[in-house]
Structures are given as C-alpha cells and as structure tokens.
Design brief:
By secondary structure, the chain is mainly alpha-helical. 36% of the residues lie in helices and 6% in strands. The protein has a domain of 28 residues.
Length: 128
C-alpha cells in the first residue's frame, strides 16, 4: 500500500496535515523532502499572461480532482483488498481491477460525462 500525506518538517519532527485513518500500529515510511522555494516561471519562459491562461485552463481539472469521487483513487489498493475480502464481492473486485477501456466507456452516460476542456494552444513540445 502506498499513501501520500503532506506535512511539514520542523525541529526534527514531521507534522502531518492529516492523520491516516486506515493505518494501525507501526508501519515503515519513506520521507521525501520537497524544495519549498517558489518556481520562477520567467526562467521557464512563461510570462504573467501565459501563467494566468494556464491557471484558468487548469481550474476545471482542479474541480474534478477535488471532487469526492476522486477519493476512490487515493487508496485504490486498500479499497480493492477490502472488496476482495468478502467472497460475494470477489468477482466484482476482480472485474473492477481488470476493467478494460471499453468497460469503462460503457459506463459513460449523459449524467456523468463532462464537457470538453480547452487547455489552450500548445506552449511546449506537445502535439495535439
């Protein structure tokens, strides 16, 4: 199982932004220290107008990313394991983890499909 939780290192201790509810007892962790200095967009040839356009175009992703439905992906392995523990759900669990693109697309309907998102013109080497 992998789980990421943000925190702050201060005075030899790490303060987590949340307490993991699904971890009992003692468990090994790996701590990665992030560079906390701001990213200089000008060094990356991004001006203020481009940054504002980028922020606006990504805002729709943030709404989806922060939706409660996305919580399913935060702890995928544990959810699968929990589902597989119940023999009645074992077939459903296996189908869930082995779903094909066609299976997933079959679940798309007018109630759960979102509108196309325009992310603007290419700003790097991406090809559309």
């Amino acid at each position: 199982m992998l789980k990421s939780i943000e925190g702050i290192y201060r005075d030899g201790k790490i303060e987590l932004s949340e307490i993991p509810s699904d971890i009992d007892g003692e468990i090994r962790v790996i701590v990665t220290f992030l560079n906390s200095s701001p990213i200089n967009l000008q060094d990356r040839n991004i001006d203020q107008e481009q940054a504002a356009d980028l922020r606006a175009s990504l805002a729709t992703f943030a709404e989806d990313w922060d939706s409660p439905e996305m919580d399913n992906y935060n702890n995928y392995d544990a959810a699968y394991f929990e589902m597989a523990q119940d023999e009645e759900n074992e077939a459903e669990a296996l189908a869930w983890i082995e779903a094909t693109l066609e299976d997933m697309l079959a679940e798309v309907n007018q109630e759960n499909i979102h509108e196309e998102t325009d992310t603007g013109p290419a700003v790097g080497k991406e090809i559309w």
